[in-house]
Amino acid sequence: MKQKAVLILFSFTNSYTNSSTTNNILDLLSRTFPFEWEIVDADFNSKDFYSHPRKQYHSTKILEQALEKYSDNFEKILVLTDYDLFVPVLTFVFGEAQLKGKAAIVSTFRLHQEFYGLLYNEKLFFERLQKEILHELGHTFGLIHCKDWFCVMHASANIDEIDMKSDHFCNICGKFIVD
Amino acid sequence: MNSETRILIVDDELVVRESLKHWFEEDGYNVEVSEDAFNVLQILQPDKWDIMLVDIKMPKMSGLELLERVKAIDPECIVVIITAYASVPTAVEALKNGAFDYVTKPIDPEELSHLIAKAVKHKNLKNENISLKARIEEMINLGDLVGESLEMKKVFELIHIVAPQDTTVMIRGESGTGKELIARAIHLNSPRKYYPIIAVNCGALAESILESELFGHEKGAFTGAQYKRKGKIEMADGGTLFLDEVGTLSPKMQVDLLRVIESKQFNRVGGNDVVKVNFRLISATNEPLEKLVENGKFREDLYYRLNVFAINVPALRERRTDIPILANFFVNKFSRLMNKPNKSISKDAMEVLNNYNWPGNVRELENAIERAMVVGTLPEIQVENLPFRIENTKGMLDSLEDSERLHIKKILEKYDWNVTRAAAALEIDRVTLYNKMRKYDFRKE
Questions:
Q1: Which of A96, A170, B86, B433 is deepest in the core (most CB within 10 A)?
Q2: Which CATH architecture has domain B317-392?
Q3: Which of B26, B106, B113 is opposite residue A88, by nearest beta carbon?
Q4: Which value does ipTM take for this structure?
């Protein structure tokens, strides 16, 4: 029997629930990672993570709370949010993960074309989201950034670098997920 | 591999330390953190960390002070200063004091990523530079100049003393002792190493050709001189001119050469323009120049000009302890060149090599090993693989003492180191044999 994993939707608009995006994500997770995935709406208080001076949300604190609430029942935890995330030393993060751990978080905030003053592009948005989810969950399997430019584990410090890489693990990184 | 890069983060804020550590770990770096500059200094030693990210404002010791002290202990360590906007001028000061770069908090991920990639590249280039320098040094110091005997150690010492100076050097030694290698070692250890070393064998060319070879010629200077040509002296400008076999120079060439050495200028053959040159002169000879001077065959003034700093290279038979070292060195060299598995030298073959007189010196030994490597099919070089001349001299030694040593050893081995029976066979008493064994340091193997 497969171990259980959870996709937590943490959004002030609740825009993901029952949407086609959510279904596509669940499909992606089930195909790629050997878990039985469940979907839940987060019961977090967003104020706990908010930084007034930065107008952003502290991703490490969200991960801590997700672990506190869900780690007993789930082997892997993925938080999906549309808040803009930060860690104190960096201006922003697309996501964060525990290296060789249980939890990861991905933000959609900077994955939309509109964020960069461009026209909405759903296909591109989903491609980016897919890559970020695989990337952050990859870290939870102990994967570090890959030198292969096309591997989804290649580091991305900006949106162009996300667009450049593929939505697949390279042969070497892929083995870690299967095993 | 990023894991080979060791990063230390020094910041008093836990959250900064942890988020940076996490960021670098995802990149596969080997990361350590410290909240205190004093702790860092207690354990810091050269080459402990490659990159250090240091917060400029810390309670006990500022990042600037830490930078200064780190650079004093480990100048190669790359220090990146982390600062807030307000203290950018201080960060600029840090750059002046040897910091690699600075970043302002909060750091843009792209900026951090580029900065670390740049620092790693810088570190790799530095390491590559150090390793290349070491390899060059190794090539200079070792090259084919091999030897651990006291005689050769003295030669190496002289090379190191004279190389950095601009002194004229004369290398004396028998043919095949490696005089040219010594000249090259001197050149490569001198400030002129980035310029050429031009070697001319004065004994190999007829006078008229040597003149044009050394001084060059103008177009039409003689029949066949269709183009203007630079001579070896002109080619050595800035570098070193190595004249081998100077003892064979004709009287006219001696005068011409003396003039160039004294004035550092000359005319090309058939030309009127004065060519000014700046070179260091190294000469070599295997002839007794003093006798040639006495007999009036070599100019005394030129002799003194050339013989400013003399290096005498010992003949191979004068440094027998180097024979096995050289032999093995050449075996390795030819294995590499011939792409053959590394061979060893059999005990008998080594004994023959050790006992031979080597009139052709190291060159002859090199040729003998090359031949043995070509003809030998076994993993060990055998006596029969050695050139006929060397093989046949087995037992033919220069001194009576050498012959005695070899003969006693043979008899001892024949009688399985039974001293009584060996002494009887040698027709000497046991005490004498014991004395001889002590003298030649013989012990049963």
A1: A96
A2: Orthogonal Bundle (1.10)
A3: B106
A4: 0.76
